[in-house]
Every structure is written in structure tokens, then in C-alpha cells.
Design brief:
By secondary structure, this protein is mainly alpha-helical. The chain has 1 helix and no strands. It has one domain.
Length: about 60
């Protein structure tokens, strides 16, 4: 295999890897959007109350 053919093969592999990475990032972004939608739905629309706990359940100091 010539140097030119090796370079083309390497570029082809790189392109395939980048396409796979792009797909994975797109799936992660969609998963994040789905989680945000779910959490927003769980809180209810128009809920303007200040949170009393952090996401790990620890109480926010100064709030009840």
C-alpha cells in the first residue's frame, strides 16, 4: 500500500470515528432535553417557588 493509500485509509477511519462521535453527542443532547422536559413536568408549570433542597436532597440554608 502506497503512502497516498495509507493516508486515504487513515482519513476514512477518522471520518467514520467523527461520524460515530457526532451521533453519540446528538443522542446525549436529546437525552438531556428529555430529562429537562421530565424534570420540568415533575415540578409543574408555573411553579415559581424557591427550592428548599438541593438536587442531592440537602436543605438550602435559610429556607424551609
Amino acid at each position: 500500500m502506497s503512502e497516498h493509500e495509507q493516508l486515504l485509509a487513515a482519513l476514512h477511519q477518522q471520518t467514520q470515528a467523527m461520524q460515530a462521535l457526532t451521533q453519540a453527542v446528538s443522542e446525549l443532547a436529546q437525552s438531556n432535553r428529555d430529562m429537562i422536559d421530565y424534570l420540568a413536568h415533575q415540578q409543574g408549570e408555573g411553579d415559581d417557588q424557591e427550592p428548599t433542597t438541593y438536587l442531592d436532597g440537602t436543605p438550602v440554608v435559610g429556607r424551609r
